[in-house]
Amino acid sequence: MDKKYILSIDQSTQGTKALLFDEQANLIKRIDKSHEQLINEKGWVSHNPMEIYNNTIEVVKRLLEEAKIDAAQIQGVGISNQRETALAWDRETGNPIGEAIVWQCARGVGICERIEGAGHAESIRRRTGIHLSPYFPAAKIAWILEHQPEAREKAEQGKICYGTVDTWLIYKLTDGKSYKTDYSNASRTQLFDIFNLKWDEDICGWFGIDVKNLAQVCDSDSHFGDTDFEGVLKRPVPIHGVLGDSHGALFGQGCLKPGMMKTTYGTGSSIMMNIGAEPVLSSHGVVTSLAWRMKGKVIYVLEGNLNYTGAVITWLKDDLGMIDSPGETGTIAAEAVQDDRLYLVPAFSGLGAPYWDSRATAALVGMTRTTTRAEVIRAGVECIAYQITDIIKAMCEDAGAAVGELRVDGGPTRNTYLMQFQSDISALTVTVPDAEELSGIGPAYAAGLALGIWDETVFERIRRQEYQPRMAPQIREEKYTGWKEAVSRILTK
Predict the structure, then answer these.
(1) pLDDT score, position 407
(2) Where residue 148 falls among pLDDT bands split at 50, 70, 90?
(3) C-alpha atoms less than 13 angstroms from C-alpha of 304 in its C-beta half-sphere
(4) Rounded to two decimals, what is the model's pTM?
(5) CB under 8 Å to 253, separation ≥6 — which residues?
(6) Residue of 65, 75, 66 whose CA lies nearest to 25
(7) pLDDT in tens, 223-241
(8) Residue 189: beta bridge partners?
(9) Quick one: angle between helices 165-173 and 49-67, nearest 10?
(10) Among residues 387, 385, 372, 441, which one has the least CA distance to residue 415?
(11) In the chain, fewer beta carbons within 10 Å around the N or the C end?
């Protein structure tokens, strides 16, 4: 009997991964390719949409060549994506209109301030579950329409497509036959009513976006179309699982019951808590989104997003030249003075949850004459855990329940200093899976389940390493109070 494989594409901020899973959901092969980060003098962050698409084709081709399997054994495809990055393209030619605006980019702040000035901010939060912010695609798409004459012209003619990276890839991979997104990605656009499960015409109008030009919203495990990756496969196969990267990680982590929580550590971080079939609007600065809709059933989450977590380590390496590789940070942080009260608040493009201050700027707080490179690096590592703890506390308040375990994933989870400090400062058991690729595993699982390749016992195959809190409660309280005081110094509202 021929073997069966599932192919997963994980399109992230830094690059694109192709992942190959066998019938037992074992990861057989992974191929990565990075793409250029386009940052201009204003600090705007962009990506080249065609580079992302071409890299997707390339990593699939290399994957099949290096795995040495028969391409005919591929049964289906899952896709995860960097969610709040937005772009527009010509509906007829499939050519992008300008660059993709990356989720980190706050160039739409003026548009959000205009809409807030018109009195719409609270209506947007109550319908979409998320705070009005340039972080989300609505303001990014509005910016494209306001600043790209070609986009305005195409939109008026009904010849434009716009949305998140999943929609772009689905459109290109199906040669323009499928213009679709899934519920998880739609819920992050700030244009989707998560209670009535539809694009909100009022909100779209406030952003100057014609709802008729938006993609069809589909169940996350539905059939999104067929692709052969431009002839790389011998026959077209179904795209059968699409999830935003953080939702994919939540699903892949097996956080299927209310109260289960995960954090994805990447360039930024997403902290999610499954809250079940009934939405809860946050009153503590986090947001409500759809986890997914599968088999017609909707699951909601509370979520907090951070712009700079792993990106802080990149900043220490590439911009300050303090380290040669991310792997050094754990050792150096452990050697730093541990009772030093230096804090880094990494508001390089404002602060997201739970503060929502897009005009805040970054700061090192608490420097003394004895502060050295080691203490700065330690502050850079620890600020990741502090930010995540802020969000965990907010979610527990909203959900009215405490959690005992935080499931984590992403490259920075290899940093044992960070993981132990995360456990210490949040007073939670932190569990690290034996797989790094949770964002890509989630849509692979969804596709494999939809196609009958495996059943729900697939979630039991992941093994986990545990970190238990070791910090004395008094020290934890002192350190966290110091963090809150440091944050208060940079807030503008």
Answers:
(1) 96
(2) very high
(3) 29
(4) 0.88
(5) 260, 262, 407, 409, 433, 438, 442, 462
(6) 75
(7) 999 999 999 999 999 999 9
(8) none
(9) 60
(10) 385
(11) N
- Strands 74-81 and 5-11, bridge-based pairing: parallel
Sign of CA dihedral 301, 466, 341, 317: negative
* C-alpha to C-alpha distance for 135 and 83, rounded to whole angstroms: 10
- Given this model, what pLDDT does residue 402 score? 80
Give me the mean pLDDT over the 363-368 stretch. Answer: 95
Query: What is the CB-side half-sphere exposure of residue 303 using CA atoms within 13 A?
Result: 26
Reported CATH class of domain 5-243: alpha beta
Cα–Cα dist 138/163, whole Å: 9
Pairing assessment for the beta strands 429-433 and 405-409 based on DSSP bridges: parallel
Dihedral sign for Cα 386, 189, 106, 245, please. positive
Separation between Cα atoms, residue 209 and residue 118, nearest integer Å: 17
CA gap 151, 359 in Å, rounded? 28
Q: Take residue 332 and report the two structure tokens written for it.
A: 């150096």
In this prediction, residue 267 carries a pLDDT of 84
Interatomic CA distance for residues 237 and 75, integer angstroms: 6
Structure tokens belonging to residue 216: 């069809």
Burial class (CB within 10 angstroms; exposed 0-12, middle 13-18, buried 19+) of 231: exposed
State pLDDT tens for residues 327-344. 999 999 999 988 889 999
Calpha distance 153→137 (Å, rounded)? 20
Which is more confident, 10 or 461?
A: 10
Provide the residue type at 20 as one letter. L
